[in-house]
Amino acid sequence: MTRILFVLMLASMLTLGCGKSHQEKTIENAIENQTGGKTDVNLDKQKMTIETKEGDKMEIGGGEEGIKLPADFPKDIYVYPGAKIEASFKNNDSHQLHLVTADAAAKVIAEYQTQLKKNGWNEKTVTRTGEFSMLEYAKDNRTVVVNASPEGKQTKVMIVMTKEEQAEQKQEQ
Fold first, then answer.
1. Is pTM, for the whole model, over 0.85?
2. How many CA within 13 A on the CB side of residue 42?
3. Nearest residue to 158 via CA among 61, 91, 83
4. Could you tell me if residue 92 is left (phi over 0), alpha (psi between -120 and 50 degrees) or otherwise beta?
5. Per DSSP, what are the bridge partners of residue 83?
6. CA atoms of 53 and 57, how far apart (whole Å)
7. Alpha helices (runs of H) in 36-163, residue ranges in sequence order
8. Which regions of 70-153 does DSSP assign to beta strands (E)?
């Protein structure tokens, strides 16, 4: 009898994907079938990671704690302290982060202007429309754009870094 219970328990663990819920496995399989890449869904942590065969990577969620800063995110691009990272995307040599903070958009933008200059970035464009602000900076063959806008009692921040070769390729297409 003990042997039968052990086999049934082992079979049920294998069926559930060793801790993965049926929903998580269904979502992962659907995305993997569409992208051909590897997907990890964790509904408890409200987090999803997708990595394509080409090496592109997307991570979204993380619930209240957010997600971790990707290890390969450029060290010379300032990330606002205390901000929660809601999403990160990597495609070839471009990076994108979506952050949220309780600080005012004007404070966030002022800090980005200071820190990017301090890290050797050259200001190209500053745009302010109402409470929305956008910064564009260049360094070597890279461009970084930082957007900040209020949303309720929070400020949403988006950071996009691209290499100039990618920008030229996009224009040619």
1. no
2. 13
3. 83
4. left
5. none
6. 10
7. 105-118
8. 84-91, 94-101, 122-129, 132-139, 142-151
Question: What b/e sequence results for 84-121 when a residue is b if at least 16 CB atoms lie within 10 Å of its CB, and e otherwise?
Answer: bbbbbbbeeebbbbbbbbebebeebbeebbebbeeeeb
Q: How many residues does the chain have?
A: 173
Please check whether residue 120 is in contact with residue 139, taking contact to mean a CB–CB distance below 8 angstroms: yes
CB 101 within 8 A of CB 84: yes
The pLDDT of residue 39 is 67
Enumerate the domain spans of the chain. 19-64, 68-173
Residue with tokens 């903070």: 101
Phi and psi for 140 in degrees, rounded to 5? 55, -125
Q: Which amino acid is at 169?
A: Q
What per-residue confidence (pLDDT) applies to 66? Answer: 76
* Structural contact between residues 121 and 136, judged by C-beta atoms closer than 8 angstroms: no
The CATH fold of domain 68-173: Double Stranded RNA Binding Domain (3.30.160)
Q: Nearest to residue 51, comparing CAs of 31, 67, 30?
A: 31
Q: What is the pLDDT of residue 114?
A: 97
pLDDT at 91: 83
Q: Tell me how crowded residue 171 is: count the other CB atoms within 10 A of its CB.
A: 7
Provide mean pLDDT across the span 34-59.
71
Contacts of residue 126, Cβ cutoff 8 Å, sequence gap at least 6: 113, 133, 134, 135, 136
